[in-house]
Give the backbone structure.
Amino acid sequence: MEKRYQVFVSSTYADLQDERQEVMQALLELDCIPSGMELFPAANEDQWSLIKKVIDDCDYYIVIVAGRYGSTGADGQSYTEMEYRYALEKGKPVIGFIHRDPSSLASKRCEQLPESKTKLADFSALVQKKMCRLWDSPSDLGSQVSRSLIKLIKSTPAVGWVRANLVPDGSAAEEMLRLRKRIDELELRLSAARLQAPEGTSTLSQGEELFDIGFQFSANTPGEFFDSGTYGYSIKLSWDDVFAAVSPLMIDESSEETIRVALNQLISNAARPILQKQESEALKGKSLTNFQVSEDHFQTIKVQLRALGLIGKSSKSRSVKDISTYWTLTPYGDTVMTRLRAIEREREAISKP
């Protein structure tokens, strides 16, 4: 939606009419709405309320400082300085434009009283604490304003004004409100999904319930190069054990082959001590290696974790040459993994004296 920004132009008036004209032209060429002394050329207490209201409505504020401090209010502060301080107080984005060499200006365009000169110097120093540019002619000032405001609009976008026919009507506003409520409802459901299992999974085997996983392994005689035999066994592991082993790999995403390797390692760690304790002549004194989960049980594990709402296929894009299947954690799966794998703080035993 196209916006137009309102810019308040603050300065002394009589001595800078040519300069203000250049600035107004520059702002109009940027499709901005200039506001300033042209609306209220005579400064008085009654108009201060109007000035503040106009500054409130503006998106940006610029101040031009040359050789005059300007008309002062009851407290001895010039209206230009009062406007500048008010814009700062309201948090308006401000830019100052200070004459490069005020001593080169005609005497009628400069302060004559020492007190006014001091106030002007102090005000110039205040303006230079914020974004500030120097100028030396009306045309130079117009160019400086144009370039500086373009940068300020990009770095600090403001609310701006739009045409009334581009503002949503009542029915559109109602539809936007309805959609906003729907989004809020969906966000609540998504938040709940992170903490609880999907509907319909209560009848599925899960958690501490055991699954009998078939696998194969090799038994090698020490000193021999070739495997002396391949054997098939099975071991019962809980679904929590299985998921705890593979889930950290899918925090981002993981290929099926990587998941398979993790399952093989889980089975090896769990089954090797059991097998080595058995009094089997076929395995006695042999090294047990190359544990491999059966293909059928690997597919069952993958389907079960998906059915439980713990994992899902990754939707990341990749090259057409990569035909592997990748899996990632669901929000609920991430919650379950954290519960299974996160380490709780140990509670220090407190002994009574």
About this structure: The chain has three domains: 6-165, 168-197, 210-341.
